[in-house]
Amino acid sequence: MSTPTGIDDSTGLPSFPGARSSRCPLDPPTEQMRWRLGEGLSRVRTSHGRTAWAVTRFEDVKVALSDPRISADARRFPVLTAAGQDMNLPPAFPRMDDPEHARIRRMLTGEFTVRRMEAMRPRLRDLIDRVLAKMIAAGHEPTDLVSAYALPVPSLAISLLLGVPYEEHAFFQRHTATLTSLDASQDERAAARRELFDYIVSLVKLKEHTPGDDLISRLLSERVATGQLGHQDVAMMAQILLHAGHETTANMIGLGTLTLLRNPEQADLVRDTHDPEVVAGAVEELLRYLTIAQDMMWRVATEDLDLGGQLVRAGDMLTISLPAANRDPRYEDPDTFAPDRNARGHLAFGHGVHQCLGQSLARVELQEALPALLRALPDLRLAVPLEQIEFRHDMATFGVHALPVTW
Fold it and tell me: What are the C-alpha distances in Å from 228 to residues 73, 87, 165?
């Protein structure tokens, strides 16, 4: 198993994603920032043990995520397929290219429109209030904000959307953690993926007989009944959404809270404003500034091409750094958290045809969860020094394993 930090002596190449500064752990890995300011593309050893080009500059990242000569299809790079994809399961649509990818994605886009997500706000507010009330009533200080708030809120939201019983949240959170761990073995990931998939298949079968007002039930009635999808296809789509729908937002709630607590004036702004546009702007800046997808964006060139002045050969693998790209000098003073800046156009959700399907849901959750937390607990503060916080250096999505707080 390769290490996600330091230098791999067997190749002499720096490893990706690399080490973050202990002094500034919210900044992207130090070497990525240096690569971005240099030639842009650098040869690295990935966490999967493969040599790749690291893409770190904003414009290069946009090209890499939109050029049809650069493929997202996991079947094109067997090392990653072996590490993260059970070939006996239906393929995951984010790891497909068009037209396959577009055909499946179109079946889901209507479920994640801005209008539909905005309509969820009242239910999200009620959900958030209940989670906060439970956390406060427990009366435990210090409290781990991750387990008490950052995880339950998006877990409840995506469970509500998909029709997954929230009582099963511990099961899918545990399996998701294995799937996103850079330290998990291939066998551990395969077992977690299979167990999670088998559970969702059983849920799909149950909903065929007892449908509800949820995404899985609608896919069964609108897509399976018409022959466009099979039961296993629906299960795989639900698994991807369940996985992505709580893991990333939970990490953003945790890291976003930490960032605001380290910037009291900005926290006051988010807590006290009655202008939803101010909150929305702060959330966009948090998404840009934190950009938690640290080891998730893999691509492979299908033919020779020039990227950022570098010749990339057909078959070369690329690993794409969204965190480094979002600290590009195109933003004034990019390493500063500035909620009043216009951060729209950032790459936290990716770019191109594979841009995150659930970004509207993530935005609404963050816009509701962060102000609600600060308003309910105006004296919220860290219970330990920054250096004692355990960051998720070992995971594909950055965040904190725990965030001890008091109020």
Answer: 21, 21, 26
